[in-house]
Design goal:
- The chain is 77% helix and 0% strand.
- The protein is an all-alpha fold.
- Helix 1 runs antiparallel to helix 2, helix 1 packs across helix 3 and helix 4 crosses helix 6.
Length: 136
Amino acid sequence: MQVDPRSTRFSAAVTTLILALVLLTGNAWLLLAQGVVFALGVAGASPYGLIFRRLVRPRLGPPAEMEDPAPPRFAQGVGLAFAVAGLIGFAAQITPFALGATAAALLAAFLNAAFGLCLGCEMYLIIRRLMPAATR
């Protein structure tokens, strides 16, 4: 099943807002909630994607093109890794580490939302090119 690229940018915009709130408030629970959203995105069940499909896409009409869901799912996994790192930082009371991990995830989400540059998707494509054909 293909995904609407506007959905991934919408999800990145919401993620940007949530992670900015985490940085502003230092709220680990909010980061945990975003981590759950990342985990659901890896599984192909992004709540933000559902909101986009139900509420936003009907107002926009069909997309000009669809894209492979594998790179965005990988990107959600990268976001999840940064969220987990941030949560570990908060739990260990290493606030600079927690905020740094959150800021890295925020930067990636912002680049996707604002410019359509998905760093996790690019990582996925690079890894695929570097893998020997026999392991694919």
